[in-house]
Write a structure and sequence with these properties.
This protein is 29% helix and 26% strand. By secondary structure, the chain is an alpha/beta fold. The longest helix has 26 residues. The radius of gyration is 24 Å and the shape is globular.
Length: 479
């Protein structure tokens, strides 16, 4: 039997971050992962899909005919695109392997990491088995990640009916692709395949609008852009049956009026969310209780077992790689008595890789209303931003929310380079910052971040652009 200070189960963003933070504290760590190292933070997830998004956006931009050049004759090799995605993933994984190899050798003043490839299962309170190896530890960090959630009525075969684990590996671009689910994952892949211009994409949404967790103005811009690039959205569609028929997949659904519809596709992508990967871990032997949806129940990173912590997708929080890393570092600091400050979930940020790009931090309007929080929101169209004018890409807007006293609540940016705009506001929200702090910050020019500055000044009454002169391109909402 081998013994360690900490046993980390899972080699994705949370597991790796937690293991390395424990090494910082001088602990000897065993990192157990079934592979591939990096998990969905690299493969069939955060990095691979974003690489695919960037490549598809580059291709779509190069094919345009309204920018002083004509790219209509540009050719595409799907195999070459897949090779580029694989290269990006290998590079990221190699960086992790180098790090873990270096930390596998004990050194003065720090701990070490021993990596074991395989699936861990608790056999006793402080003991797990990995194949024929038995691993004991004083403390455990569960960072097992998540897997695609598939409705029980749909049979995934990985060939015709796919999840995000399969769709990036298809032999050729499908001519007709149906995507079931209009959340972030479904909308992201709809964007990718539409951008390559070889696929007719149909998106099935059970809600009245896509991205229902965001404000209606955000989803409206994305839906409008989808219509322009050829993504057809079936709203309020109730899927009744998904059946493989020869080389096609037939979907039967009830439309918004209740009428039954039927159509066939080359491939169907099921993008109906993700579920925590907590099965077959023997958690009951460790005294760990599961909550709703198989997520690990607890208080923050702590579970129901005093020697077990959890981080990342196995917790009830948002499934984001950046949050997973933060939670894991917080868990390790907590388990060794450093009393870390609580994570400010109100300051968590995210980027949705769509067309156009969407970035979010903090509350949107519907969240503020649901919490009963009074707010003022400034909306500034990208048509007023000179960087957007220079890019010839003015679709979208900036929306900044603040309390009546000026404390920042949230930010939504829709448009190119949206993800570059939110970090400053995320920092300020975490510190209880105000509109005055945004106003005092010197922004580069020309830059898309100037839209955030103009939104703050709009709420302060000092904006360059006045609503009465801009014909709706900037305005203030009271909520």
């Amino acid at each position: 039997m081998e013994r360690f200070d900490v046993c980390v189960i899972g080699g994705g963003p949370a597991g790796v971050a937690g293991a390395i933070r424990a090494v910082d504290l001088g602990k000897h760590v065993v990192l157990i992962d079934a592979g591939p190292l990096g998990g969905a933070g690299i493969f069939d997830g955060a990095l691979s899909s974003k690489t695919l998004w960037h490549l598809s956006a580059d291709f779509a931009r190069a094919c345009r005919r309204d920018r002083g050049y004509d790219g209509v004759a540009l050719s595409l090799s799907w195999r070459a695109v897949q090779a580029e995605v694989a290269a990006a993933c290998r590079s990221a994984q190699h960086l992790l392997e180098r790090q873990l190899t270096a930390l596998g050798v004990p050194a003065a003043g720090r701990g070490s990491i021993t990596r074991i490839t395989g699936r861990a299962r608790f056999v006793e309170r402080n003991l797990v088995e990995v194949g024929d190896r038995r691993i004991a530890a004083d403390r455990f960090l569960l960072a097992c990640g998540s897997r695609p959630r598939v409705p029980a009525t749909i049979a995934v075969d990985g060939v015709r009916v796919l999840t995000s684990d399969h769709v990036e590996h298809v032999d050729e671009l499908p001519h007709r692709l149906a995507i079931i689910g209009a959340g972030v994952v479904g909308c992201e892949y709809a964007t990718v395949f539409a951008h390559f211009g070889c696929t007719q994409v149909e998106l099935f949404d059970r809600q009245a609008r896509i991205l229902p967790f965001e404000d209606e103005d955000v989803s409206a811009v994305v839906a409008g852009r989808f219509a322009e690039i050829g993504v057809h959205v079936h709203r309020q569609a109730k899927i009744e049956r998904v059946e493989v028929v020869g080389d096609e997949v037939e979907i039967t659904w009830a439309d918004a009026q209740g009428a039954q519809q039927r159509r066939r596709y080359d491939r169907v992508l099921v993008a109906t969310g993700r579920a925590p990967s907590t099965a077959d871990l023997g958690l009951e032997r460790a005294g760990v209780t599961l909550g709703d949806g198989a997520g690990i129940a607890g208080d923050g990173a702590r579970t129901s077992a005093p020697h077990v912590w959890a981080a990342g997708d196995v917790t009830p929080d948002l499934m984001l790689a950046n949050l997973a890393e933060l939670e894991a570092r917080h868990a390790v600091e907590d388990m060794f008595g450093l009393d870390p400050p609580p994570i400010v979930h109100e300051a968590q940020s995210a980027i949705y890789f769509l067309s156009p790009e969407v970035a979010a931090v903090g509350l949107n309007e519907q969240m503020a209303r649901a919490k009963g929080i009074r707010y003022r929101a400034a909306i500034v169209s990208n048509t007023l931003n000179r960087r957007n004018l220079a890019m010839r890409a003015t679709t979208g807007f900036v929306k900044l929310l603040a309390r009546p006293d000026g404390r920042l609540l949230g930010l939504r940016v829709v448009g190119p380079q949206a993800g570059t705009c939110i970090q400053g506001v995320a920092l300020l929200i975490g510190q209880g910052g105000t509109l005055d702090a945004v106003d005092r910050c010197v922004h580069p020019h020309p830059a898309v971040t100037e839209g955030v500055l103009e939104a703050a000044r709009l709420l302060l009454g000092t904006s360059l652009f006045k609503p009465e002169a801009m014909d709706g391109a900037c305005r203030i909402i009271h909520g």
